[in-house]
Write a structure and sequence with these properties.
alpha+beta; four-stranded mixed beta sheet; single chain
């Protein structure tokens, strides 16, 4: 009873409790009829991907080495099987997971489990205090760590498959507007700083500083949705939870610390709230990142008090865990849920430097000691990015994927997606509920809208972190809606939900 009372006794849980008191364990439909035989199965697992000390940490302009493990990093996996198709979702405590790791992991998952590669979704949470898996600014990955993480992703999905058992699933959406803020701001005329290329054409600034007297208004909205997919056994034992929230990361960790940020803390808090931290097999809660390319956790309207390391992470994780648990309490789980998946690979252009821009950048880099030297200033750092980006191909593959779990749609995009894009896709989706998971199935940098490219700012500055063509968002939105429509059309006729 502790799990039921720790959140709130929802009517469907009251039905279970009443049934237990009366000695009846058979699930009932909303009309009081026996439910159809179980065809749905679910399994979840966790695989540790904590790096060794002295490895590079992603998420900084300069390279930082891991000196302390504050909390373990993990791949959290959920596998669903409707008797005809299986889908697997693996959420990694990583800043980014490159396509090379994704492709290698998916190939081995397909070989060892039979789950089709396009039915496997692999994403990064975007913690900025994880082991480096993909080159970014002045951090480069250790090939041994890349190989290790690839193996652990595969192991995680295989273990989740081994845990498959009869299940019912449900989904729902809550709101948490207090932890998300648009980080791009219009400022008073003449107060937006020059960009690293020496231009003064930016009309907005990212993270302009809390209490900045030049603030005018944010350049975009926020998305407060807390979307939850939940799986449990027919007898109320939780199996797994996939949550989704559009918040970039929180940070505020110690120097050189390895941490899963609020994503990892959320997983632990949900277990405690639901009294599921001793479930056997273990209950796995995971938080995926929504469309948060221009969203952070800093309210710049007023000066912010100094906090001890991890204080804000704990606050955000606790708030979201309560939200997710409340959503779960209101879910009517079902066994009559079908699955589907589709993917599409777009070839999108790269915004490469002009010959003049490349020549100017080479002069800056050479003066600083060459591309292997440590760059000290922002102009030097972005000059080096220009030189490295010049070697990129003219077009790159961008994988868009859609999964369907009943009437829930999941769209996966390998970019740091601006919030407006996520909100547009969710609004236009043909499915009842849609969550967007960013940084999934590779990494193709920031995805601003065409309007935001015109406004400029950090997220648009050409680098290996932002290089797709200006019209990329429009192509990706179109592909996302096309795939969601395809998986929606494959959905069987609705059957009444089963109550506990």
């Amino acid at each position: 009873m502790s799990r039921l009372s720790s959140i709130r006794l929802h009517p469907r849980k009251m039905l279970v409790f009443a049934g237990l008191l009366g000695g009846a364990l058979m699930p009932l439909t909303t009309q009081g009829q026996e439910s159809p035989a179980h065809v749905l199965r679910a399994g979840a697992s966790t695989s540790n991907i904590t790096p060794w000390l002295d490895i590079s940490i992603n998420g900084n302009m300069t390279d930082v080495k891991a000196g302390y493990i504050h909390d373990e990093l993990n791949v959290r996996c959920l596998v669903l099987d409707d008797g005809h198709k299986k889908v697997a979702i693996a959420v990694c405590d990583a800043c980014t997971v490159p396509l090379s790791i994704v492709d290698a992991a998916k190939a081995r998952i397909a070989e060892t489990t039979g789950i089709a590669a396009d039915h496997v979704l692999i994403s990064a949470t975007h913690t900025h205090s994880s082991g480096c898996l993909a080159s970014g600014f002045q951090s480069d990955p250790d090939p041994a760590y890349q190989k290790f993480v690839t193996t652990r992703i595969v192991d995680g999905v295989r273990r989740a498959v081994q845990q498959l058992e009869p299940a019912r699933v449900g989904w729902g959406v809550g709101k948490e507007p207090d932890q998300v803020f648009n980080r791009r701001w219009f400022l008073k005329p003449g107060t937006v700083p020059a960009d690293p290329f020496g231009k003064t054409t930016d009309r907005v600034q990212m993270n302009p500083g809390a209490g900045n007297p030049n603030l005018v208004e944010p350049a975009g909205p926020v998305d407060p949705d807390v979307t939850v997919l939940f799986a449990e056994t027919p007898f109320d034992r939780p199996i797994g939870m996939l949550a989704n929230y559009a918040l970039h990361y929180v940070g505020g960790v110690g120097g050189g610390h390895v941490s899963a940020d609020y994503f990892g803390a959320f997983a632990g808090e949900v277990k405690k709230l639901m009294d599921a931290d001793r479930a056997n097999p273990p209950f796995v809660a995971m938080m995926s990142n929504g469309a948060s390319g221009d969203i952070n956790n800093i309210n710049v309207r007023t000066p912010q008090p100094a906090l001890e390391p991890y204080a804000k992470i704990r606050l955000v994780a606790t708030e979201l865990a309560v939200d997710a648990a409340e959503v779960e309490a209101g879910i009517l789980p079902r066994t009559d849920v079908s699955l589907d998946a589709r993917s599409m690979v777009l070839q999108l252009k790269v915004r490469k430097p002009s010959p003049t821009e490349l020549e100017d950048a080479k002069k800056v880099v050479d003066a600083a000691g060459g591309v292997k030297a440590e760059m000290k200033t922002m102009p030097q750092i972005y000059a080096r990015e220009t030189v490295l980006l010049a070697d990129y191909p003219d077009t790159v593959p961008v994988t868009i994927q859609a999964l369907r779990v009943g009437e829930l749609g999941i769209i996966a995009i390998p970019c740091e997606v601006f919030v407006e894009i996520g909100m547009e896709i969710k609004q236009k989706s043909p499915l009842q509920t849609t969550m967007l998971i960013e940084l999934a199935n590779g990494y193709n940098g920031y995805l601003p809208t065409r309007k935001h490219h015109e406004l400029g700012g950090y997220e648009t500055w050409r680098a290996r972190s932002s290089y797709l063509e200006v019209g990329a968002a429009e192509a990706i939105v179109s592909a996302s809606l096309e795939l969601l429509t395809e998986v929606a059309r494959s959905k069987p006729a609705a059957v009444p939900a089963t109550a506990k």
